[in-house]
Amino acid sequence: MSIVFKDVSKTYLHKGKEINALRLTNLTINAGEIFGLIGFSGAGKSTLLRLINLLEAPSSGTIHVGDDEVTALNQKDLRVKRQKIGMIFQQFNLIESKTVADNIAFVLRAAKYPKAEIDGRIDELLELVGLSEKKTVFPKNLSGGQKQRVGIARALANNPDVLLSDEATSALDPETTKTILNLLKRINKELGITIVVITHEMEVIKELAERVGVMSNGEIIEMDDVYKIFSEP
Ligand code: ADP
Ligand code: ADP
């Protein structure tokens, strides 16, 4: 599913002062691609991600996710649309008091997934991420890589069209990072899910992204195929 920003800006009011966090005249993330965003802290990467996952609205401009102009949806339609956008996080954001299965069941129930099919769906998701034998385990008994696999399974539970990754491998060692990146690539290929990745790890972008946007000061100052971004000028 493609994501299109037109004349978007995002301004925060902070202690009586306006902070212009994002200005995007034109940005198209193509359906089915892995798009990476890099830039220093404060460049606007998280703001851009929060506009795609519909947690925030832009101050001006329009955003399309697939066929929907999400900037024109009402609250009810926004809630439904949000379920089609999965997200994974640096700190995994699992509920520690729930088992692996219940962490996933939780989002399926919230989306009114048919009750009788929830258990089967959890099995399917855990098989996809290679964690079938951890179904009844609590997060504290999982390694970091296993926790992120649960995070990915949960993000995919409602068959999203888009998967957003916010520093998802930044808490993992290089070896584990590699296995998570391979899993994300497989998900992109096999399920056709559009993936948007933000990270400060250049190796991750080089390994995973097909196209890259470089952000600075609320704008995308350069955008190209990954090998061109990282080739000498
Ligand atoms: P005040 O109390 O004067 O309103 P705060 O620093 O508590 O200012 O910020 C208000 C809210 O705005 C906080 O909830 C915080 O999460 C958010 N916020 C403020 N500045 C930033 C920032 N630079 N980055 C992210 N969030 C911010
Ligand atoms: P990045 O993810 O690249 O580090 P952000 O999108 O978090 O950048 O921040 C972009 C700019 O917007 C920064 O100047 C930041 O301080 C500001 N900002 C982000 N969120 C808030 C907020 N909730 N309130 C006020 N300012 C914010």
Task: Report on the architecture of this protein.
- It is a single chain.
- By secondary structure, this protein is of the alpha/beta class.
- Helix content is 34%, strand content 28%.
- It has helices spanning 45-52, 75-82, 100-110, 118-128, 144-156, 174-191, 202-208, 226-229, and strands at 3-14, 17-29, 34-38, 60-65, 68-69, 85-89, 162-166, 194-198, 211-216, 219-225.
- Strands 6-7-8-3-9-10 form a six-stranded mixed sheet, with helices on both faces. It has a four-stranded antiparallel sheet with strand order 2-1-4-5.
- A hairpin with a 2-residue loop joins strand 9 and strand 10.
- Helix 3 packs across helix 4 (118-128), helix 3 packs parallel to helix 5 and helix 4 (118-128) crosses helix 5.
- It is globular.
- The structure holds adenosine-5'-diphosphate (ADP) (2 copies).
- One adenosine-5'-diphosphate (ADP) is lined by residues 14-15.
Features:
six-stranded mixed sheet, binds adenosine-5'-diphosphate, ATP hydrolysis activity, four-stranded antiparallel sheet
